[in-house]
User: Which sequence fits this backbone?
């Protein structure tokens, strides 16, 4: 029998994966001014060493996360680490500048480690430990980014600049072994066919969007290449959205993403990402800028990087507090507090930033707010999506956060370039520029607060904890699959079939959206009695009681009763065989038409709730009659009697 690793070991290994992932983005930053000379390239070319990583991180994270839900989360963690290790080795060997770009691009795939790692924590840990573990995993982004600046200086000074890449390769190799030894594969997955077309179109759209955002300031926002890329991104998204709505197992479930809890959380994440990144950008720059500018402290790269460490450490130290807060008040309240703290701190920094100590304190407070916000966001996402889709949902959330950081980088660069002062023949940002950037951070965090206020309370996370207490805290989850069949073929029901699982107390445990063939997967917390409910647009719901004893089980349901609006058309009391019945909305939009059978009967599939006009026309007598009816969500009978010789009169 395989021995299960302790929870703390799983948390430690996955957190280290997240930290090493974050290091890939900051280790090269101190060396960017030196790369033109080291690699014999231009300064603008050297920026591609950062851009390539950011692009692949944004593109690769949702793809790897979706694959994790389908093919195994630990497996895709190993794939991400493998790509990162390969990229690190390529960069360390320094064959050419082109291979360096390829290596840096491969390192970007390591960004998926955090999103997929958080999903594994949800699957493997007892519910009462998930909050703290997710908070720690989210905090690794901060501590990894903070440690990257001073660590790069130490490694390059002692062992040469190639050592920063060898460090990434060795650390990744150690973590591969640790993953294989400590972290078990999650049993929660939904095998299927990967949406290759959707992934390719989304990747192209993201590249066309993020490339001009990253390079627009250098290339010029009015340049044809920038405008062309932005327009291409929009066109590709226009193609991608209907594609995802039709495909059987989409790359991104847009219907789920459009639901209020997920949509508001993702929108809030954009601005939380902006607020977080503004802190790193403004803090490092103001500490390094010469004191002669009147808006800097003249610290070296290593010293400025060390000044960011308290912020990263505070994020880690806040993990237990964040976990306790999530368990006590839920993700919505924690996100409100975290974003609110960031906004208030930025406002304070506008007026109090006259010493290194003040800068460090302000940066640390923003870091604490970031820790709370970033712990809340994946918790909110996972409590709102099907359990079998938590990795891909977290991947999408990571993507929108990266869009926020890219926007922050572009806006900060534009502000710094607009408000400048010349010292020794070099342009630097003015004090006013730094104040405007701090205001930008405050506004971004405030918008995050406003959006977080629109997020409903996350009930499922709370109920999972109560259920775990009743079961003794042991995780016994199992995936149950099945198929929902319709009594007749109905293409209009594609993508609308929903399956919910309730316990005997009426609490929803999981839900799933069936694919185009009606197949679904839900996660049950363990053996017990459950109620399975299936519903689809145009069909009456069905429910069944399900006694689950464990193992692999198929639970099928059939929706037998189609919801219709039907009736009989008569002509002076006699059946009007062959009469035409037209259905339209009260405002005039046509819904459909049909002909009566020999008994005068007709039927339409029930349209959405609202007011409609039913018009019956008898071609034999040239008479017609109309009725206005309010339809609800239940089947309705609407009989129409056509008086002989009647003109069209609403009734």
Assistant:
């Amino acid at each position: 029998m395989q021995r299960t690793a302790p929870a703390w070991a799983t948390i430690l290994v996955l957190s280290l994966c997240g930290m090493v992932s974050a290091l890939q983005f900051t280790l090269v930053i101190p060396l960017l001014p030196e790369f033109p000379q080291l690699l014999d390239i231009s300064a603008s070319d050297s920026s591609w060493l950062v851009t390539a990583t950011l692009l692949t991180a944004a593109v690769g994270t949702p793809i790897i996360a979706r694959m994790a839900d389908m093919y195994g989360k630990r497996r895709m963690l190993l794939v991400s680490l493998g790509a990162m290790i390969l990229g690190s080795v390529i960069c360390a060997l320094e064959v050419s500048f082109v291979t360096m770009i390829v290596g840096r691009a491969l390192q970007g795939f390591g960004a998926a480690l955090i999103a997929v790692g958080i999903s594994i924590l949800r699957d493997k840990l007892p519910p009462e430990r998930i909050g703290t573990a997710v908070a720690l995993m989210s905090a690794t982004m901060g501590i990894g980014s903070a440690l990257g600046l001073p660590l790069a200086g130490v490694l390059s000074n002692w062992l040469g600049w190639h050592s920063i890449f060898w460090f990434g390769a060795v650390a990744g190799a150690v973590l591969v072994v640790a993953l294989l030894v400590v972290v078990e594969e999650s049993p929660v997955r939904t095998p299927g066919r990967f949406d290759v077309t959707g992934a390719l179109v989304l990747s192209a759209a993201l590249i066309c969007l993020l490339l001009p955002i990253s390079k627009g300031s250098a290339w010029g926002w009015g340049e044809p290449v920038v405008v062309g890329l932005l327009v291409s991104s929009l066109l590709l998204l226009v193609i991608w959205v209907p594609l995802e709505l039709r495909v059987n197992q989409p790359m991104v479930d847009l219907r789920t993403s459009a639901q209020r809890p997920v949509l508001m959380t993702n929108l809030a994440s954009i601005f939380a990402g902006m607020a977080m990144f503004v802190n790193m950008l403004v803090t490092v720059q103001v500490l390094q800028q010469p004191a002669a500018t009147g808006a800097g402290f003249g610290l070296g790269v290593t010293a400025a990087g060390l000044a960011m460490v308290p912020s990263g450490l505070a994020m880690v130290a806040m993990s237990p507090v964040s976990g306790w807060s999530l368990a006590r008040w839920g993700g919505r309240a924690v996100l409100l507090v975290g974003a609110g703290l960031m906004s208030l701190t930025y406002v304070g920094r506008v007026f109090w930033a006259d010493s290194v100590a003040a800068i460090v304190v302000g940066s640390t407070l923003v870091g604490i707010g970031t820790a709370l916000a970033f712990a809340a966001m994946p918790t909110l996402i996972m409590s709102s999506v099907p359990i079998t889709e938590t990795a891909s949902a977290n991947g999408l959330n990571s993507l929108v956060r990266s869009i926020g950081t890219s926007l922050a980088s572009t806006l900060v660069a534009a502000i710094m370039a607009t408000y400048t002062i010349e010292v020794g023949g070099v342009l630097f940002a003015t004090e006013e520029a730094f104040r405007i950037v701090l205001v930008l951070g405050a506004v971004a965090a405030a918008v995050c607060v406003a959006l977080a206020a629109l997020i409903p309370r996350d009930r499922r996370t709370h109920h999972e904890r109560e259920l775990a207490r009743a079961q003794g805290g042991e995780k016994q989850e199992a995936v149950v699959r099945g198929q929902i069949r319709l009594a007749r073929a109905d293409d209009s029901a594609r993508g609308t079939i929903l399956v919910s699982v309730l316990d005997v107390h009426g609490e929803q445990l999981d839900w799933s959206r069936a694919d185009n063939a009606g197949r679904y997967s839900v996660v049950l917390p363990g053996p017990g009695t459950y109620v399975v409910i299936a519903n689809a647009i145009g069909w009456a719901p069905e429910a069944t009681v399900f006694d689950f004893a464990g193992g692999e089980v198929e639970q099928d349901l059939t929706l037998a009763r189609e919801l219709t609006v039907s009736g009989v058309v008569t002509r002076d009391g006699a059946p009007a065989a062959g009469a035409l019945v037209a259905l339209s909305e009260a405002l005039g939009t046509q819904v459909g038409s049909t002909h009566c059978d020999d008994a005068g009967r007709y039927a339409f599939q029930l349209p959405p709730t609202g007011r409609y006009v039913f018009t019956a026309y008898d071609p034999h007598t040239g008479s017609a009659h109309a009725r206005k009816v309010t339809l609800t969500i239940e089947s309705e009978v609407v009989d129409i009697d056509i008086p002989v010789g009647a003109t069209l009169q609403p009734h």
Q: What stands out?
A: The CA atoms of residues 77 and 113 lie 6 Å apart.
